[in-house]
Amino acid sequence: MHVALTGTTGFLGLRLVRELLERHGSLTVLAHAGSGGALRRITRFFELTSAPAALITELPNRLRVVETDLGQPRMGLSSAGFQRLADELDVIWHSAGNINLDDDLVKLRRVNVEGTRNVLALAAAGGRKPMVHHISTAFVAGARREGVVYEDELDDALGFENGYERSKYEAELLVRAWSQAHGRPVMILRPSILVSDLPPHPELPEHPLQFLDQIIQTALRRLGMAGVCIPEKDRPMVRMIGHPHGHLNFLPVDHAASVMVQLASRQPPGRVNTYHVVHDHDVPVSVVVALAERLAPVRLELVEHRPDDLSPLEAAADFYPGFTPYFSHRRRFDDTRVRTLLGPSLSGVHVDLDYLIAGVEAGQPLPLS
Fold first, then answer.
1. CA distance 84 to 82
2. How far does Cα 194 stand from its chain's mean position?
3. Whose C-alpha in 132, 164, 224, 302 is 20 to 30 A from the C-alpha of 30?
4. Over 50: is that where the pLDDT of 365 sits?
């Protein structure tokens, strides 16, 4: 079976590479043209995560790198090259995406929407009629903040918290329409917020929650406060909009990749098969607040409305508008389909403050072996 994967050097993509290589003899890596070194970055990830030496040695022979540009027609390939690639594939995993919540919508759409459109075009052109596994996000649920979100749901009635959510919603619409037009099954995987307790390392993708540290540190630098030792009792207060009973779903990324590949091994029961890949327990927003306070010398207070009297630090931090609405979320993602197929999707990992800190706190990176 010939399998291709986009987004191979991303936070989730690297784990999918590992899972897929456990089931397949080889893998086609659709790497971003001009980025260079995809094989080197994958190899480095395997080295830093203590993969077997024999597997690391085999990587050059088991991974084929094809440089593409997902935002371009034919993925930036020649007509002949595009067709040749399409005809070789039995399965296409689409994991690549722009996850910058506050990026310009045009930029988000270029990768998340047009990239998906071009991956679907690749699947449509393939003589083997490859199966498409599309990595979406549970946050296509948009600005709905309470209740239960079911796997069949996909609408924009309540709008979206940021451009990222909207772009991923639009990509899902494309996948569904493509499936109907071609009469072919697709699998849509909707993970929650993916996390890891693997310590930061300059040669690994950034942890999705490291932006908490970055936005506060940027604000402190603007005010000349970066690197200043501030006693705990004197730490400045930063007010953020949130609900005291808010909660978010965090899932260890390694477990997410394992669940996704297990689901892909099953015969698709329907035309459009959508799965919430989520943790069985949510994390209180208070834990995320404590994480931010651990990363930066500030105190955070959740407030109902944006204050009119912003402090200089609050104005500089600017609340990171794409993320802060999540501090008010109290919804739950139903994963009945996953549980029906695989049983209770228990990661065996309790995501708490210590777990989150281990994956984002600077100071104790992995050794440069």
1. 5
2. 6
3. 164
4. no
Q: Are 180 and 271 in contact, with CB atoms under 8 Å apart?
A: yes
Name the residue with tokens 């291709």: 4
The pLDDT of residue 367: 45
Distance CA 82, CA 196 (A): 35
| Cα distance between residue 168 and residue 98, in whole Å | 10
C-alpha span between 177 and 256 (Å, rounded): 26
Higher pLDDT, 67 or 324: 67
CB neighbour list of residue 112: distance below 8 Å, 6 or more residues apart: 97, 98, 164, 167, 168, 170, 171
Number of Cβ within 10 Å of residue 313's Cβ equals 17
The closest alpha carbon to 331, from 239, 247, 267, 240, belongs to 247
pLDDT digits (tens, 9 = 90+) for 257-296: 999 999 999 988 889 999 999 999 999 999 999 998 888 7
Task: Give the residue among 92, 83, 183 at the shortest CA–CA distance from 131.
Answer: 92
Determine how many CB atoms are found less than 10 A away from the CB of residue 152: 9
In the chain, the amino acid numbered 156 is D
Find out whether 1 and 124 touch, Cβ atoms under 8 Å. no
Q: How many helices (H) and strands (E) does the chain have?
A: 13, 15
Q: Which has the closest alpha carbon to 197: 51, 345, 366?
A: 366
The conformation of residue 204, written as its DSSP 8-state character, comes to S
Cα gap 300→213, rounded to integer Å? 13
* Backbone phi, psi, residue 232, to 5°: -55, -40
d(CA 72, CA 336): 37
Give the global pTM: 0.93
Say how far apart CA 243 and CA 228 lie, in whole Å: 31
pLDDT score at 368: 41
Residue type for 255, please? H
pLDDT digits (tens, 9 = 90+) for 78-91: 999 999 999 999 99
